[in-house]
Design a protein that fits this description.
By secondary structure, the protein is mainly beta. The protein contains 6 helices and 35 strands. The chain has a single domain, classed as TonB-dependent receptor, beta-barrel domain (Maltoporin, Chain A, Beta Barrel), CATH 2.40.170.20. The strands form 5 sheets. The chain has a 22-stranded antiparallel beta barrel. A 5-stranded mixed sheet has the order 3-8-9-6-7. The chain is globular.
């Protein structure tokens, strides 16, 4: 606690104690990606954190048809899929749990009070995504609760001018996909509309799915005070053979719905920027143990979150001050978890300033949060960067982070699981140092990180013969590791080529504490290596190869190769995507074997 109070004191002394002028942050450079999921907009290479950017070109060359598959290609991000097409997938960063990573869409927090199993339900179709920002390390002081080990912000496209794009795909396991994307740029408004359907008979018994995505993004009154609206709806219906409970539970079935509607605008003066936002997020989850007989066991959870927030920044001779306030109310109805509600308020404050002729940047900050069913919490942090050259930067950050228990942690009960209403909040103190290089041809980063956590929540048995798992705050856990990312862009015969690699090593002591008794702690991704080669054979033909190696703490390891080929002919684009080319036999989550080799053929037609 002394360390925590010392860091809070350091944060506020730095916030109020410096008066040196900083340059105005520019946002119009064609070579810069602006990280604008935070209150202080910064170019990617000026940020003093470990951030990966998945660009629109990366998405195009990824050989992926959904966000879950796409994120797997980046070291330090562990996507544990059950089934295919992103029907059910859990999101982990640097060894945290699926409840400890926050997903955002255009800066709107998509956390779910029921369980983190629904985080990826909100993932958008890749056709409407401009880029994805992966923020690794503690992010509670920037985003609030759930950003325990990091956050992922999906940034949607601004506009598609006046265009229509139609796709059809078919392939292994009876896959049949179809979608249409429309862009309209009018006199005083612009609109993007996307609809798609993805179906499959399944790659084994009871793994069929029927998934639908609907997306609308509109900008109204764009010639005066623009108001941006985003509306999404995702529905997934899938057989869940062995997804939950036990391996023998082959007849499980689940349906989920996730929807969002939000309105945002911006007020600007020379020094002050204000961004108010209101939104409503809804998630519905229906699970049955026996697909053909729902009366045996059925759960139905409906969670609504209504939020309003105001984020802003103020530029002065002392630097740039970011501030914000976030109000939200959660309502949940459930036949298992009961009827619950929670009111949350978070205050954010951070300040960025520079020293030594703009070579040193320091950004301290703090988030103070109140939960109606818990208490007040203050979580400070500080980022420090040193500009060594125009393209080379060293950085470090420290901070406290936290997560309150989900309603599943607190109240869920079935024949093998018991919730615990007396759980305490998870907390951690994290540190990181790194160095990164950025240029048009080559970019790379190396980071070392350490996280000391306490009160982590897991479901524990009292002994190896006990069949009941009870939600429990386990003792202190230390997690440390390092990661390397690099990308090289070059040309052969004036054709663009890209080679990217990533490696993450992670070591923790959680296995020492509950090796035979824990339900969730045994699957830490200890070694994670990825490489992506995007080649252009000729002007209209591109080829992509993706290799992934994973080794978990338990010793299980696997190697997976994916590839894609795209041929463009005027307004037509023919695609071939091959997954798990060498037919690797592996499991990412629970007892669910991943699909064998499979292919998907596609045809896209675009016209303006």
């Amino acid at each position: 606690m002394k360390t925590k109070f010392a860091l809070i004191a350091l944060t506020f002394s730095a916030l109020i104690g410096h008066t040196q002028e900083v340059d105005t942050i520019k946002t119009d450079s064609l070579q810069e990606v602006i990280i604008n999921s935070t209150r202080i907009d910064l170019p990617f290479k000026e940020n003093s954190r470990t951030i990966d950017i998945i660009t629109s070109a990366d998405i195009k060359n990824s050989a992926s048809t959904n966000v879950a598959d796409l994120l797997q290609q980046f070291a330090g991000v562990d996507i544990r899929r059950r089934g295919t097409a992103g029907s059910q997938a859990d999101l982990y960063i640097r060894g945290g749990s699926f409840d400890q990573t926050l997903l955002l869409i255009d800066g709107i927090k998509m956390d779910d009070a029921q369980t983190g199993h629904h985080t990826m339900n909100a993932a958008l179709p890749i056709e409407v995504i401009e880029r994805i920002e992966i923020i690794k390390g503690p992010a509670a002081r920037v985003f609030g609760q759930n950003a325990f080990t990091g956050a992922i912000n999906i940034v949607t496209k601004k506009d598609l001018t006046n265009s229509v794009s139609v796709k059809t795909e078919t392939g292994s396991f009876g896959q049949l996909n179809a979608g249409v994307t429309v862009g309209a740029d009018l006199v005083n408004s612009s609109h993007i509309v996307h609809v798609d359907k993805m179906t499959s008979a399944g790659y084994r018994h009871n793994t069929d799915y029927d998934n639908s995505n609907y997306f609308v993004k509109s900008v109204f009154n764009k010639n005066k005070k623009a108001i941006e609206m985003i509306a999404t709806f995702q529905e997934r219906k899938f057989g869940a053979n062995g997804f939950y409970a036990r391996e023998s539970a082959t007849e499980q079935y689940e349906e989920t719905q996730n929807s969002l509607i939000g309105f945002t605008t911006t007020f600007n003066t020379e020094k002050l920027t204000l961004k108010p936002r209101v939104y409503w997020k809804r998630n519905q989850d229906e699970y049955v143990y026996l697909r053909n007989d729902p009366t045996v066991y059925r759960n139905l959870h409906i969670t609504n979150k209504i939020g309003a927030e105001l984020n802003g920044s103020y530029k002065s001779k002392a630097g740039v001050t970011g501030f914000g306030i976030d109000f939200s109310k959660v309502y949940m109805t459930s036949n298992n978890l009961g009827n619950r509600n929670r009111f949350m308020t978070t205050l954010f404050l951070e300040h960025a300033f520079k020293l030594a002729n703009q070579k040193v940047d320091i950004t301290p900050g703090v988030a103070v949060t109140y939960f109606s069913d818990f208490d007040f919490y203050a979580f400070p942090g500080i980022d420090i960067g040193l500009k060594l050259t125009d393209n080379l930067k060293a950085y470090g950050n420290i901070g406290y982070t936290y997560r309150i228990p989900t309603y599943t942690d607190l109240y869920y009960n079935d024949s093998s699981t018991v919730g615990n209403p007396d759980l305490e909040v998870e907390e951690a103190f994290s540190q990181e140092i790194g160095i990164k290089y950025f240029s048009p041809k080559f970019s790379g980063s190396v980071a070392l990180y350490n996280r000391n956590a306490q009160n982590l929540i897991d479901f524990i048995r009292s002994n190896t013969t006990e069949a009941i798992y009870t939600a429990t705050n386990i003792t202190e856990v230390n997690t440390k590791g390092f990661e390397v990312d690099a990308a090289y862009h070059f040309q052969l015969n004036e054709l663009n080529q890209t080679l990217a690699i990533g490696y993450n090593f992670l070591d923790d002591n959680i296995l020492d504490q509950n090796k035979d008794l824990s339900r969730y702690s045994l699957n830490t991704l200890k070694h994670h290596f990825t490489t992506r080669l995007s080649t252009q054979f000729c002007k209209n033909v591109t080829h992509n190869i993706i290799y992934k190696h994973a080794e978990r703490t338990t010793g299980d390891s696997y190697n997976v190769w994916d590839a894609s080929l795209a041929i463009t002919a005027k307004q037509f684009k023919f695609t071939l995507t091959a997954a798990n080319i060498f037919n690797a036999d592996y499991i990412e989550a629970g007892f669910v074997p991943m699909p064998p080799s499979n292919v998907l053929f596609g045809l896209n037609y675009s016209f303006n």
